[in-house]
Amino acid sequence: MQSPQDTIAAVATPFGEGGLGVIRVSGTRAIEIVSKIFHRGAKTSFPAASGGESMDPLPATAGDDDFFKNASSHTCHLGTIRDIDQVVVTLFRAPQSYTGEDIVEISAHGNPLTLQKILNLCIQKGARLAGPGEFTERAFINGKMDLTQAEAVAELIRAKTDKTQAAALAQMQGTLAQRVRQLRGRLLPLLAYIEVGLDHSDENHDFLLRENLSVRCGEVQDEIGNLLQSARVSKILREGLRVALVGRPNVGKSSLLNALLKEDRAIVTSTPGTTRDTLEESLNLNGIPVVLTDTAGLRQNSADPIEQLGMERARKSLEAADVVLGLFDGSEAYSAQDEPMVQQAMGKPHLWIINKSDLPQKFSREKLETLNGKAPVLELSAKTGDGLDKLIDGLVNFALDEKSRASEAQWLLNARHQAALERAAEALARASEAAQAESYEECVALELQTALGAFGEIIGETTTEDLLDQIFSAFCVGK
After folding, report:
1. pLDDT digits (tens, 9 = 90+) for 99-154
2. CA-to-CA dists, residue 208 to 11, 193, 195, angstroms
3. Any idea what the Cα angle at residue 196 is, between residues 190 and 201, rounded to 5°?
4. Which domains does the chain have, with CATH numbers?
């Protein structure tokens, strides 16, 4: 049975060989446990430096309990772990540590076997293996961070681009929590005023004017709307902008994929229908994570069952895409073969791409403007790279539209945050309606309490054990 009073231990660095590996131990017995396996100094001398004398560290000492009891927090100590490895032990005393508990971090050479042996010793001496995210969960429980900051730790670890990293770091520093607390602070006086009136209804207490209450609720709703506007860009920064390359066979989809990746990832031939399956690759476009999907060519009729399966997968990729790049062959005129792609692409946000601009042009861009005048039309050559910069700018502009640019580096809203904000907005709308309809003050107060509760869920002031398990189970062990 796991208990928050247990002392926990885990390897805190990724599995595999490396220069260093770290075992983290946290809890009331962390110092005691490590002191039982750690010996200060080293059993052998270091080799002599070039032209110098050999350096003998402090003699190895066993029974370091007294030493650890007196050692200062945030200090590092050279020594050995039994006969396993020479290590550096770093001591963090509560409450000035990541978890708010005593923490000892053992830095050893990054050999998986070595790290596992040291971890096993810690467990033998009384620690238990930490669960996923348990160190960060303890930091939350002990008040070292709120729930949005804890979630941002995982976001920072997974960040693949500089914009995602900046947003996660800002949220880890409390930007989202501060904004939520500001919104709560604007609602609390309204609720307090109403509740005072209810408690003193026999004293002819003046209730807050209903018109003023509606205005204030509306102002907070607008602020929530501004927050929710960043949900779209948050999803893109977290999961990547999904871009599907579609078009009839041999328009240059695979060539464009290779040009954007700057490597020959997809097979390119002059034979139509070379691509029979979807090919998915990730890349970083000016700080925006992008997931590119090269698809099989779409055409009206095909007797080849493999090609039919490829086209079906292409349609599914198109449906899942955030934006579609509809490709045309600039060296040929628009034809009926382009129709299947056009009809499907127009059902999604899309950009029209006229490829092969390095060849004599027969395609008329006016045809595309009659289809949909709002969709951008770009001319480029996947072969020479001419025009690729404009395409990249177009994709970045799509990912960070005008409203979301202001919030791109402030926080990363996830589905949990979004659902709570939507509940708060709905409760405020009901509170405003109740006030305007001259309903009982209790009804207005109840809706305000619902909104405040939703804000509390975001930062973790009101939460459940199941919710915490759900959040921290997605973390890696050791974090």
Report:
1. 999 999 999 999 999 999 999 999 999 999 999 999 999 999 999 999 999 999 98
2. 57, 7, 11
3. 125
4. 8-145 (3.30.1360.120), 155-235+410-460 (1.20.120.430), 243-382 (3.40.50.300)
